Amino acid sequence: MKAEQDMVTMDRIVLEKIKFGIQQMVGSALMDDMRYESIEDIATRSIIQRLTFYLLGNKVHSEEVDIKVRGYPATMWEELKRDFWPKWLKRIYPVRYSRDVTHVTNHHFHVCPHLNYKDDRKHLVFMMLNDVGAMK
């Protein structure tokens, strides 16, 4: 006879099939440079659908950011010191760490999809602004 802790109880539930969709409105001005791809990924048994197009834009600002990915003991010896040495000995001979840093450059653009409309003046003025505060 099995012990009580080995027994599993299950409840029955009914799941619903819920419909999801993605819809994107694209103006006729963007249709000229639009490219649509549908790729079958055999490894994951899925379909990748990609819609790409170009918009006129103006690079406003670039900034570089350093992101610390992870820190770890510098050598195997340092890892042994960290895990097994007593605190008083680690105060005398502290553990040295190394770190991996990723450098990321963020580019900020003014992009305006309305430039092909009849009244382009206000859109062109927006594109000529060269400060990040104008994007807010």
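That was protein one. Protein two is written in the same sequence-then-structure order:
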Amino acid sequence: MSERQQSNDTLPTTCKLSPDVLGQIRVWILQGATEHDISEAIADKWPDVDSKPAIIATMEQISKTANFDQESLVGFCIESTRYLYQRMVEVGDFPGALRAVKQLSEYARRPIVIDCDEET
């Protein structure tokens, strides 16, 4: 894994926020809100929360999501696709269900990578 240099604005923070605050900030980020818009929303909703460390803490949490191993990520994709398939069949969305089956068949054709360097 290559090391990346962090700017002063993205150094790890010790900002401790409730899961509700972090969750809402994550929603705003994923919806594409600008940093300015998020800062204003934080000031309106939680006047005692410093927006810059709160946004940085949320971004750190989002970046940790990328630390999954490939097997876990593929497993999540398969389970999510299976769940969506079940929901589509329940509501009668058969074209959508067929797309989910197609997606699962693509997962099934992917080569399995075994790391021979791992200790057992």
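Confidence is low (pLDDT under 50) at residues 1-11. Keep this in mind for the problem set.
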